[in-house]
From TrEMBL, chains A, B:
Domain Moybdenum cofactor oxidoreductase dimerisation: 288-400
A UniProt-annotated Pfam family: Mo-co_dimer
Keywords carried by this UniProt record: Metal-binding, Molybdenum, Oxidoreductase, Signal
Signal peptide: 1-35
Keyword Signal part of the UniProt annotation: yes
GO MF annotation: an example: heme binding
Gene3D superfamilies in the record: 2.60.40.650, Oxidoreductase, molybdopterin-binding domain
Name of protein: Sulfite oxidase
C-alpha cells in the first residue's frame, strides 16, 4: 500500500475540492469524477449531476432535471460509440434500489407467451448465448427543443441520443429455447422493474411497452453496455433492447417479456408517446411513437459557442437510418441552398448504429448555417420540416438541426 | 438549482463515504467514481487508484504501482472496445502537468524530416482532416507474469492491453501537406513531451522511439480516445498512434514527429525493449520489440475466481493479429488436446482491432483447462510456447494464457 500519486497538483486539487463540497453535504450531490478528458469539471449553466449518475462527465452534459440529462452537442466525439459517461439519461420512474445490481446474475425475467413459459435469471441467460449489437438509443422527444410551439416535456436539442454497444442474448434464441412464440401473438411486450409509487393504479405509472412481434428478430436481452455491466441508471442488471425503436421501448430492469395478442393497456402505451395533432392529447386512436426514421446532425466545428477559425474546417456529425442503415449524407454550408456529398468516417457497426460523416470545407470569415441531410438505404430522405405534433416527438427536420456558426 | 437526487441510499452512501475519506486527506488518493456498473467499489488485493487516474473503475483493475495498472481478466467486457475507465496504464515517466490539457488545442508538435518542416498546433491538425482507427493497444510486456523466469518488470497477465478507438489526422496527410517526407528517411521517430527528471542525461530517460517509415501508412496523430478527448494519463492532448506496434511506440504528449535516416539513440530505443537471451541485457545488436503478433485469450467464464456453473457455457475472449487481421480462433476445453472452431461476435473494426470470439460448450462438473488459439490472415498461428527472453516481452503462448476453471 505504498502507492503514491504522481505529481498532478491541479488534478488532485480538483478532486479534493469536489470531495470537500460533497462532504459538506451540499444537497446530497456527489462529486463527479472525470471519466475522460481533463477539462474543468463544472460546465456553465447546468445543474449539478444527481448522485446516482455522479460518474457522468459533468462537462459533457446538460442536466435538465434529476431524471433528464442530455449530451452537449459540442461534446459528442467522433469515435462512433458514445462513452457511457456522456450518454443521456431519461427515466420515466426512479431506478430500483441499487441492491439489484449487487448480485446482477440473480435478477430474473419472466418469459411469457411462449410454449414453455418460465423465469430466467441473468446467470441462465448468460449461459444461453452471446451477441453484441451497436444501436442508436434515442429519446422519442429528442429535438423537441426546436419546436416553436414549446410542447411540454424536456426541451432536448440533439443530445437525447447516443450510439451504444450492447451485449446479451438475442430474444429469438430465448424464445426458441422455450419452445417458440405461442400462436396468435402479434406483439412483444416488455415490463420494467421500477418500484412503483404507492397509492396509484399501477397501470397509470408502470413502464410497459409493446412493439410489433417482428421487432423480436433483432431484439436482445442485454447485460452489458459499452463493454461494462449496464449501470443502474441505464437499466442494469438487464435491459430489453429493441433496435430501431425509440428509447422508451428499450425497457430498463426488464422483469417480464411477454409475447401478447394485443398491445398493453398501460397508460404509457395507450396515451403516452402518441402522435397527436398540435394542441391535442394522446389517446389510443393516434399513431404510437415507435420506429425511428432517418436523421442526422452536425456536431462541429462551432457547436460549443458558435465561433470557428476561418479557413479549412472539418464539418462532422452523425447520421442514422432508424430501422434502415444510412447510405448517404449531404452537407450544406449555406443553410440548404447548395449540398455537398459528405464522407463516412470509421467502421460501420451495422444498420442500427449511427455513422460519423465529415466534409472538408473552406469557411470564409462571416456567418454560416451548416446543415446535414441523410438518406437511408430504403431511399428515405431526411425532411426539411418537422412533422408538427403536440408532444414534440420525432423531430428529424434538417432545418431545425442546422448549426449557426461565425467564422473569424 | 432545485435538482435533487432520486432515492438511491446505497449509491449515495458509497459516494459520501468516499468523499469523506478523500476530504480527510488520506494520502492524496481521490475517491474513484464508478464509470459503469455498480458493484462494490473496492476490489480485494489491489492498491488504491492514484489520484491522476481516480476516474478509473477500481473494481476492474489491478494497481501494481502508480504508473502500472492492468485490467482484470474477468472485467474485460464483450463490447469490442475497452472502456477508458478499464484501460490499462503503463507510463515510462510521469505525465506532464495537467495544465497541458487545460487548452488542448494549443498543444504543438514539431514535424521534421519533411520538405517544409514546421510546428503545428492541435487546432491546426483538427482543421486538416479527420479519421478514426480502432486498434489493440498492448504493452510489450503483457503476459510477462506467465514467464517462470520472473523477469524484472511488471508481472502483467492479460490486462496490459485493450482495444481502443482513436480519432485524429492520418500522419501521411500531415506529411503530404508539408511537402512530403524528405529523401533518405527510413524511420518515423516520435518524441514524448513528458517533463524529464533533472540532473540526468536526457537521452537516458526521454521517451523517443523509431519505427520503420512504412508504419506511417496507417499512423495517426490522435486527439480523441473512445469518443472523448484523450485523458492526460493516456497521452492527451495529442498522441502518436502506430497501429500494430506495441504500446511504447504510441508516443504520448507527442511534441516532435520526425522522419529520420536512423533510429533514435535514446536509451529507451537502443537498450530498452530489446529481445535479449535469458539472463542477458538489452543492447542495440538485439531485435527491438516492435510489431505485435497473433494472440488470443479467454476472458470467461470463470476468469474471476475460477468456478463456473456446470452445463452450457459461453466461452468467450479476444483475438487479434498484430499487423494482420485475425481470421480464425479455436478453443480447447481440455488444455489443447482437442480444438473447436469458435464463432466471431460483433462488428469487425478493422485489421488492427481485436475481435470477440465465443464457443458454446457443455462443461461437465470437474476441472477444465480452457485455451484459445488464433490464426491471422497471413496464416500465422498463435504458438503453444512463449519465446524466452530476458525482458519477458511478447508472450503469445496459448498454453501460458490457458484458463483453469472448476465447473460445479
Amino acid at each position: 500500500m505504498n502507492s503514491q500519486p504522481t505529481s498532478h497538483p491541479r488534478r488532485r486539487l480538483l478532486a479534493g475540492s469536489g470531495a470537500a463540497l460533497a462532504a459538506a453535504g451540499l444537497g446530497g450531490l456527489a462529486p463527479a469524477a472525470r471519466a475522460a478528458g481533463d477539462t474543468p469539471a463544472a460546465a456553465a449553466g447546468t445543474k449539478p449531476l444527481p448522485g446516482y449518475v455522479a460518474w457522468k462527465d459533468p462537462a459533457s452534459v446538460i442536466v435538465h432535471s434529476t431524471t433528464t440529462i442530455e449530451t452537449r452537442r459540442g461534446s459528442f466525439g467522433t469515435g462512433v460509440l458514445t462513452p457511457s459517461e456522456q450518454l443521456y439519461i431519461r427515466n420515466n420512474l426512479p431506478a430500483p434500489d441499487a441492491s439489484v445490481v449487487a448480485d446482477r446474475d440473480a435478477w430474473e425475467v419472466e418469459i411469457a407467451g411462449v410454449k414453455n413459459p418460465r423465469r430466467l435469471s441473468v446467470r441462465e441467460l448468460k449461459s444461453m448465448g452471446l451477441e453484441t449489437l451497436a444501436m442508436v438509443l434515442q429519446c422519442s422527444g429528442n429535438g423537441r427543443g426546436y419546436f416553436p410551439s414549446k410542447p411540454s416535456g424536456t426541451p432536448w436539442q440533439v443530445g437525447a441520443a447516443g450510439c451504444v454497444m450492447w451485449s446479451g442474448v438475442p430474444v429469438r434464441w430465448v424464445a426458441d429455447a422455450l419452445g417458440g412464440v405461442a400462436g396468435g401473438m402479434a406483439f412483444m411486450t416488455g415490463t420494467g422493474g421500477e418500484k412503483l409509487p404507492e397509492g396509484l393504479d399501477p397501470k397509470t405509472v408502470i413502464v410497459e411497452r409493446s412493439v410489433p412481434v417482428a421487432a423480436m428478430a433483432d431484439a436482445m436481452l442485454a447485460w452489458e453496455m459499452n463493454g461494462a455491466p449496464i449501470p443502474l441508471a441505464h437499466g442494469g442488471p438487464l435491459r430489453l433492447i429493441v433496435p430501431g425503436y425509440t428509447g422508451v421501448n428499450n425497457i430498463k430492469y426488464v422483469k417480464r417479456l411477454a409475447f401478447t395478442a394485443a398491445e398493453t393497456d398501460a397508460r404509457i402505451m395507450s396515451h403516452g408517446y402518441r402522435l397527436s395533432p398540435p394542441g391535442g392529447k394522446g389517446d389510443p386512436s393516434q399513431p404510437s411513437v415507435q420506429e425511428m426514421s432517418v436523421k442526422s446532425w452536425i456536431n462541429g466545428p462551432g457547436a460549443d459557442g458558435g465561433t470557428v477559425k476561418a479557413g479549412l474546417v472539418q464539418v462532422h456529425g452523425v447520421a442514422f437510418g432508424g430501422l434502415h442503415g444510412v447510405s448517404r449524407v449531404e452537407v450544406s454550408l449555406d443553410g440548404g441552398k447548395r449540398w455537398h456529398e459528405a464522407r463516412f468516417v470509421g467502421p460501420d457497426l451495422g444498420r442500427y448504429a449511427w455513422r460519423q460523416f465529415v466534409l472538408s470545407a473552406q469557411l470564409p470569415p462571416g456567418a454560416h448555417v451548416l446543415a446535414s441531410r441523410a438518406t437511408d438505404s430504403a431511399g428515405n430522405v431526411q425532411p426539411e420540416q418537422r412533422a408538427e405534433n403536440a408532444g414534440g416527438y420525432n423531430n428529424t427536420s434538417w432545418a431545425d438541426h442546422a448549426l449557426k456558426v461565425v467564422a473569424a
